[in-house]
Amino acid sequence: MRTFRLISVPDIRIDRFISENVPSLSRSYAQRLIDDGFVLVDKKSVKRNYVLKSGQEIEISVPDPKPLTAQAEEIPLDILYEDDWLLVVNKPQGMVVHPAAGNFSGTLVNALISHCGDSLSQINGVIRPGIVHRLDKDTSGLLLVAKNDRAHIDLSRQIKEHTVTRKYIAIVHGNITSDCGTVDRPIGRHPTDRKKMSVSAKVSRNAVTHYRVLQRFGKYTYIECILETGRTHQIRVHLSSLGHPVLGDKVYGAKKEKFDLKGQMLHAKVLGFTHPKTAEYMEFDGGVPQRFEKILKLL
Protein backbone atom coordinates (compact mmCIF):
# COMPACT_ATOMS: atom_id res chain seq x y z
CA MET A 1 0.00 0.00 0.00
CA ARG A 2 1.38 3.39 -1.04
CA THR A 3 0.29 6.50 0.84
CA PHE A 4 0.33 10.13 -0.30
CA ARG A 5 -0.32 13.10 2.01
CA LEU A 6 -1.26 16.53 0.69
CA ILE A 7 -2.43 19.88 2.02
CA SER A 8 -5.32 21.32 0.07
CA VAL A 9 -5.89 24.62 -1.66
CA PRO A 10 -9.41 26.06 -1.70
CA ASP A 11 -12.22 25.83 -4.23
CA ILE A 12 -11.16 22.75 -6.22
CA ARG A 13 -12.77 19.32 -6.47
CA ILE A 14 -10.96 16.58 -4.57
CA ASP A 15 -10.60 14.28 -7.62
CA ARG A 16 -9.12 17.04 -9.73
CA PHE A 17 -6.77 18.15 -6.92
CA ILE A 18 -5.42 14.60 -6.55
CA SER A 19 -4.84 14.08 -10.27
CA GLU A 20 -3.04 17.43 -10.57
CA ASN A 21 -0.79 16.82 -7.56
CA VAL A 22 -0.03 13.10 -7.87
CA PRO A 23 1.20 12.55 -11.47
CA SER A 24 0.78 8.77 -11.31
CA LEU A 25 -2.96 8.99 -10.53
CA SER A 26 -5.39 9.84 -13.31
CA ARG A 27 -8.60 11.65 -12.43
CA SER A 28 -10.71 8.57 -13.14
CA TYR A 29 -8.49 6.42 -10.90
CA ALA A 30 -8.63 9.07 -8.17
CA GLN A 31 -12.42 8.89 -8.38
CA ARG A 32 -12.33 5.12 -7.90
CA LEU A 33 -10.07 5.51 -4.86
CA ILE A 34 -12.47 8.11 -3.41
CA ASP A 35 -15.51 5.90 -4.06
CA ASP A 36 -13.78 2.92 -2.40
CA GLY A 37 -12.87 4.91 0.72
CA PHE A 38 -9.13 5.14 0.10
CA VAL A 39 -9.13 8.95 0.28
CA LEU A 40 -9.63 10.83 3.56
CA VAL A 41 -10.01 14.57 4.04
CA ASP A 42 -9.29 15.54 7.64
CA LYS A 43 -9.61 11.80 8.41
CA LYS A 44 -13.12 11.57 6.93
CA SER A 45 -14.38 9.99 3.72
CA VAL A 46 -15.80 12.34 1.09
CA LYS A 47 -17.53 12.10 -2.27
CA ARG A 48 -15.70 12.58 -5.56
CA ASN A 49 -17.34 15.99 -6.12
CA TYR A 50 -16.29 17.33 -2.71
CA VAL A 51 -14.91 20.87 -2.99
CA LEU A 52 -11.84 21.44 -0.84
CA LYS A 53 -11.22 24.23 1.63
CA SER A 54 -7.81 25.75 2.33
CA GLY A 55 -5.38 23.81 4.53
CA GLN A 56 -7.22 20.51 4.75
CA GLU A 57 -5.18 17.32 5.24
CA ILE A 58 -5.64 14.76 2.48
CA GLU A 59 -4.50 11.17 2.85
CA ILE A 60 -4.53 8.95 -0.24
CA SER A 61 -3.96 5.20 0.10
CA VAL A 62 -3.21 3.34 -3.13
CA PRO A 63 -3.64 -0.45 -2.85
CA ASP A 64 -0.82 -2.66 -4.06
CA PRO A 65 -1.46 -4.04 -7.55
CA LYS A 66 -2.78 -7.55 -7.85
CA PRO A 67 -0.93 -10.14 -9.94
CA LEU A 68 -1.52 -9.82 -13.67
CA THR A 69 -4.72 -11.47 -14.84
CA ALA A 70 -4.44 -10.69 -18.54
CA GLN A 71 -2.96 -13.65 -20.39
CA ALA A 72 0.20 -13.60 -22.47
CA GLU A 73 -0.37 -14.11 -26.19
CA GLU A 74 2.29 -14.38 -28.87
CA ILE A 75 1.14 -11.54 -31.08
CA PRO A 76 3.74 -9.79 -33.30
CA LEU A 77 4.63 -6.25 -32.20
CA ASP A 78 6.03 -3.44 -34.32
CA ILE A 79 8.57 -2.05 -31.82
CA LEU A 80 10.40 1.11 -32.87
CA TYR A 81 12.44 1.40 -29.66
CA GLU A 82 13.01 -0.60 -26.48
CA ASP A 83 15.27 -0.44 -23.43
CA ASP A 84 15.00 -1.40 -19.75
CA TRP A 85 12.68 1.54 -19.07
CA LEU A 86 10.20 1.75 -21.92
CA LEU A 87 9.02 0.74 -25.37
CA VAL A 88 7.66 2.70 -28.32
CA VAL A 89 5.17 0.49 -30.16
CA ASN A 90 3.41 1.09 -33.48
CA LYS A 91 -0.13 -0.20 -32.85
CA PRO A 92 -2.02 -1.46 -35.89
CA GLN A 93 -5.55 -0.36 -36.68
CA GLY A 94 -8.13 -2.73 -35.23
CA MET A 95 -6.14 -3.71 -32.13
CA VAL A 96 -7.60 -2.85 -28.72
CA VAL A 97 -5.01 -1.47 -26.29
CA HIS A 98 -6.05 -3.34 -23.13
CA PRO A 99 -8.55 -6.06 -22.17
CA ALA A 100 -12.10 -4.97 -21.38
CA ALA A 101 -15.61 -6.36 -21.67
CA GLY A 102 -15.84 -8.16 -25.00
CA ASN A 103 -12.07 -7.90 -25.67
CA PHE A 104 -10.14 -10.09 -23.27
CA SER A 105 -7.71 -11.42 -25.85
CA GLY A 106 -5.84 -10.16 -28.88
CA THR A 107 -5.05 -6.83 -27.25
CA LEU A 108 -1.80 -4.89 -27.11
CA VAL A 109 -1.50 -5.76 -23.41
CA ASN A 110 -1.74 -9.50 -24.18
CA ALA A 111 1.11 -9.08 -26.66
CA LEU A 112 3.17 -6.96 -24.25
CA ILE A 113 2.91 -9.50 -21.43
CA SER A 114 4.21 -12.17 -23.79
CA HIS A 115 7.06 -9.94 -24.95
CA CYS A 116 8.05 -8.33 -21.62
CA GLY A 117 6.99 -10.89 -19.01
CA ASP A 118 6.92 -9.23 -15.58
CA SER A 119 8.82 -6.16 -16.83
CA LEU A 120 5.83 -3.82 -17.07
CA SER A 121 4.77 -1.04 -14.71
CA GLN A 122 1.90 -1.91 -12.38
CA ILE A 123 0.50 1.57 -11.70
CA ASN A 124 -2.59 1.01 -13.85
CA GLY A 125 -3.35 -2.34 -12.22
CA VAL A 126 -3.93 -5.86 -13.41
CA ILE A 127 -5.59 -5.16 -16.71
CA ARG A 128 -3.47 -2.28 -18.09
CA PRO A 129 0.16 -3.01 -17.15
CA GLY A 130 2.62 -0.59 -18.75
CA ILE A 131 -0.05 1.48 -20.49
CA VAL A 132 0.78 5.19 -20.14
CA HIS A 133 -1.72 6.49 -22.72
CA ARG A 134 -4.13 4.94 -25.20
CA LEU A 135 -5.34 5.02 -28.78
CA ASP A 136 -8.80 4.08 -30.00
CA LYS A 137 -9.16 0.58 -31.45
CA ASP A 138 -9.42 1.89 -35.02
CA THR A 139 -6.70 4.55 -34.65
CA SER A 140 -3.24 3.25 -35.44
CA GLY A 141 0.12 4.62 -34.40
CA LEU A 142 2.77 5.16 -31.77
CA LEU A 143 2.26 4.40 -28.10
CA LEU A 144 4.52 4.68 -25.05
CA VAL A 145 4.77 1.65 -22.78
CA ALA A 146 6.44 1.87 -19.35
CA LYS A 147 8.50 -1.04 -18.03
CA ASN A 148 8.66 0.19 -14.44
CA ASP A 149 6.73 2.49 -12.13
CA ARG A 150 9.38 5.25 -12.16
CA ALA A 151 9.17 5.44 -15.94
CA HIS A 152 5.37 5.40 -15.80
CA ILE A 153 5.20 8.26 -13.29
CA ASP A 154 7.64 10.41 -15.27
CA LEU A 155 6.01 9.80 -18.64
CA SER A 156 2.54 10.43 -17.17
CA ARG A 157 3.80 13.72 -15.78
CA GLN A 158 5.12 14.75 -19.19
CA ILE A 159 1.75 14.00 -20.78
CA LYS A 160 -0.09 16.01 -18.11
CA GLU A 161 2.29 18.92 -18.58
CA HIS A 162 1.79 18.78 -22.39
CA THR A 163 5.50 18.34 -23.10
CA VAL A 164 5.06 15.12 -25.12
CA THR A 165 5.04 15.67 -28.89
CA ARG A 166 2.07 13.90 -30.50
CA LYS A 167 1.51 14.42 -34.22
CA TYR A 168 -1.25 12.64 -36.12
CA ILE A 169 -2.16 12.42 -39.77
CA ALA A 170 -5.78 12.24 -40.92
CA ILE A 171 -7.89 12.31 -44.05
CA VAL A 172 -11.09 14.28 -43.50
CA HIS A 173 -14.26 15.07 -45.38
CA GLY A 174 -14.53 18.40 -47.16
CA ASN A 175 -12.10 21.08 -48.25
CA ILE A 176 -10.38 22.83 -45.34
CA THR A 177 -9.69 26.24 -46.86
CA SER A 178 -7.28 27.60 -44.24
CA ASP A 179 -3.72 26.25 -44.42
CA CYS A 180 -3.55 25.88 -40.64
CA GLY A 181 -5.60 26.55 -37.56
CA THR A 182 -6.41 25.71 -33.95
CA VAL A 183 -9.52 24.15 -32.45
CA ASP A 184 -9.92 25.31 -28.84
CA ARG A 185 -13.18 23.75 -27.67
CA PRO A 186 -13.74 21.94 -24.33
CA ILE A 187 -14.76 18.28 -24.58
CA GLY A 188 -16.98 16.27 -22.27
CA ARG A 189 -19.32 13.29 -22.28
CA HIS A 190 -22.15 13.63 -24.81
CA PRO A 191 -25.38 14.74 -23.05
CA THR A 192 -27.53 11.93 -24.50
CA ASP A 193 -25.14 9.29 -25.89
CA ARG A 194 -22.76 8.23 -23.11
CA LYS A 195 -20.52 6.34 -25.54
CA LYS A 196 -19.66 9.56 -27.37
CA MET A 197 -17.86 12.78 -26.51
CA SER A 198 -19.05 16.27 -27.41
CA VAL A 199 -17.93 19.91 -27.55
CA SER A 200 -21.40 20.90 -26.29
CA ALA A 201 -21.24 18.99 -23.01
CA LYS A 202 -22.06 20.92 -19.84
CA VAL A 203 -19.34 19.14 -17.87
CA SER A 204 -16.21 19.38 -20.01
CA ARG A 205 -12.45 19.85 -19.91
CA ASN A 206 -10.32 22.17 -22.02
CA ALA A 207 -9.12 20.62 -25.27
CA VAL A 208 -6.81 22.13 -27.90
CA THR A 209 -5.90 20.66 -31.30
CA HIS A 210 -3.64 22.36 -33.88
CA TYR A 211 -3.85 21.37 -37.53
CA ARG A 212 -2.24 22.13 -40.89
CA VAL A 213 -3.19 21.07 -44.38
CA LEU A 214 -0.83 18.66 -46.16
CA GLN A 215 -2.82 18.20 -49.38
CA ARG A 216 -6.27 19.04 -50.74
CA PHE A 217 -8.41 16.78 -52.93
CA GLY A 218 -11.57 18.86 -53.36
CA LYS A 219 -14.04 16.77 -51.35
CA TYR A 220 -11.32 15.54 -48.97
CA THR A 221 -8.32 17.04 -47.17
CA TYR A 222 -5.15 15.37 -45.90
CA ILE A 223 -3.98 17.04 -42.68
CA GLU A 224 -1.57 16.86 -39.75
CA CYS A 225 -2.90 17.35 -36.23
CA ILE A 226 -0.86 18.19 -33.14
CA LEU A 227 -2.35 17.50 -29.73
CA GLU A 228 -1.88 20.11 -27.03
CA THR A 229 -4.21 18.20 -24.71
CA GLY A 230 -5.28 14.57 -24.86
CA ARG A 231 -9.00 14.13 -24.25
CA THR A 232 -10.96 11.03 -25.25
CA HIS A 233 -11.64 11.05 -29.03
CA GLN A 234 -10.25 14.62 -29.12
CA ILE A 235 -9.16 14.87 -32.76
CA ARG A 236 -12.26 13.06 -34.01
CA VAL A 237 -14.61 15.28 -31.98
CA HIS A 238 -12.82 18.53 -32.84
CA LEU A 239 -12.69 17.86 -36.59
CA SER A 240 -16.32 16.78 -36.61
CA SER A 241 -17.25 20.03 -34.82
CA LEU A 242 -15.62 21.92 -37.71
CA GLY A 243 -17.75 20.06 -40.22
CA HIS A 244 -14.78 17.97 -41.37
CA PRO A 245 -15.15 14.52 -39.74
CA VAL A 246 -12.40 11.97 -40.20
CA LEU A 247 -12.94 9.70 -43.20
CA GLY A 248 -14.19 6.31 -42.01
CA ASP A 249 -15.34 7.56 -38.59
CA LYS A 250 -18.86 6.14 -38.26
CA VAL A 251 -19.31 7.54 -34.74
CA TYR A 252 -18.66 11.22 -35.45
CA GLY A 253 -19.01 11.23 -39.24
CA ALA A 254 -20.93 9.60 -42.06
CA LYS A 255 -22.44 6.15 -41.49
CA LYS A 256 -21.68 5.17 -45.07
CA GLU A 257 -18.45 5.92 -46.94
CA LYS A 258 -17.42 5.90 -50.58
CA PHE A 259 -14.42 3.75 -49.70
CA ASP A 260 -14.40 0.28 -48.13
CA LEU A 261 -12.81 1.27 -44.82
CA LYS A 262 -12.51 -0.72 -41.59
CA GLY A 263 -12.09 2.35 -39.38
CA GLN A 264 -11.20 6.01 -39.27
CA MET A 265 -8.27 7.38 -41.29
CA LEU A 266 -6.34 8.60 -38.26
CA HIS A 267 -2.76 7.64 -37.40
CA ALA A 268 -0.48 8.71 -34.52
CA LYS A 269 2.60 9.25 -36.67
CA VAL A 270 5.13 11.12 -34.48
CA LEU A 271 5.85 10.69 -30.78
CA GLY A 272 8.47 12.68 -28.87
CA PHE A 273 9.33 12.70 -25.15
CA THR A 274 12.14 13.07 -22.64
CA HIS A 275 13.59 9.76 -21.53
CA PRO A 276 12.84 9.29 -17.79
CA LYS A 277 16.36 8.03 -17.01
CA THR A 278 18.72 9.85 -19.39
CA ALA A 279 16.69 13.11 -19.70
CA GLU A 280 17.41 12.93 -23.45
CA TYR A 281 14.67 14.10 -25.82
CA MET A 282 13.71 11.28 -28.18
CA GLU A 283 11.38 11.46 -31.18
CA PHE A 284 10.05 8.66 -33.36
CA ASP A 285 8.19 8.62 -36.67
CA GLY A 286 5.93 5.68 -37.45
CA GLY A 287 5.63 6.53 -41.12
CA VAL A 288 2.51 6.53 -43.30
CA PRO A 289 0.45 3.31 -43.12
CA GLN A 290 -0.36 1.42 -46.31
CA ARG A 291 -4.08 2.11 -45.90
CA PHE A 292 -3.31 5.85 -46.07
CA GLU A 293 -1.12 5.45 -49.14
CA LYS A 294 -3.90 3.48 -50.86
CA ILE A 295 -6.57 6.14 -50.24
CA LEU A 296 -4.23 9.03 -51.08
CA LYS A 297 -3.40 7.33 -54.36
CA LEU A 298 -7.09 6.92 -55.16
CA LEU A 299 -7.78 10.56 -54.30
Helix count equals: 6
- Based on the coordinates given, report the CATH architecture of the largest domain: 2-Layer Sandwich
Q: Assign the structural class, choosing from mainly alpha, mainly beta, alpha/beta, alpha+beta, or little secondary structure.
A: alpha+beta
How many structural domains are formed by the residues?
A: 3
Straight-line N-to-C gap: 56 Å
What's the overall average pLDDT, rounded? 91
Strand content: 25-35%
Order of helices and strands: EHHEEEEEHEHEEEEEEEHEEH
CATH superfamily of the largest domain: Pseudouridine synthase
| Shape field | globular
Query: Main beta sheet: strand number and arrangement?
Result: 9 strands, mixed
Rounded to the nearest angstrom, the radius of gyration is 20 Å
> Which segments are poorly predicted (pLDDT under 50) over 5 or more consecutive residues?
none
Number of strands: 16
List the defining traits of the structure above.
alpha+beta; Structural Genomics Hypothetical 15.5 Kd Protein In mrcA-pckA Intergenic Region, Chain A; Pseudouridine synthase; 3 domains; 16 strands; 18% helix
